[in-house]
Amino acid sequence: MDNQFFKNIEKKTGVNMKDIFDLANSLQNANFKDAQTVRGVIRRVSQIANKPVSKDMEDKIVESIVKDGKQLDFNQISKMINKK
After folding, report:
1. How far apart are CA 51 and CA 49, in angstroms?
2. How far apart are CA 64 and CA 32, in angstroms?
3. Percent of the chain's residues with pLDDT above 90
4. 3-state DSSP: the chain helix, strand, coil percent, rounded to 5?
5. Average pLDDT, stretch 9-14?
């Protein structure tokens, strides 16, 4: 991929692409039926995006993924985080 492409994304979002790639690599073999793993992912995404997630919201996301058997859907997680 074009390095300038990633620089443009970093500039627009303020998110370091290396952090995104590191996160993506860590998700490849992650067990999303394990609440501790899911919490770790939520915290990492929150940190990368510089968007704090309350304990209550974290619990809801974990429940949605682990207990309800839903697949990991970043769009749904984003909607839950941005819901006011």
Report:
1. 5
2. 11
3. 18
4. 70, 0, 30
5. 83
Distance between CA atoms of residues 9 and 67, nearest Å: 34
C-alpha triplet 51, 65, 12: angle, nearest 5°: 30
CA distances to 4, 10, 13, 24, 54 from 7, rounded to whole Å, are 5, 5, 10, 18, 30
DSSP state of 51: -
User: How does pLDDT run across 40-78, given as a tens digit for each residue?
Assistant: 989 998 888 888 999 999 998 888 888 766 565 666 666
Residues 7, 69: Cα–Cα separation, whole Å: 37
Instruction: List, in order, residues 6 or more apart from 42 with CB less than 8 Å away.
Output: 53, 58, 61, 62, 77
| Distance, CA of 41 to CA of 43 (rounded, Å) | 5
Q: What is the Cα–Cα distance from 49 to 17, expressed in whole angstroms?
A: 11
pTM of the model: 0.70
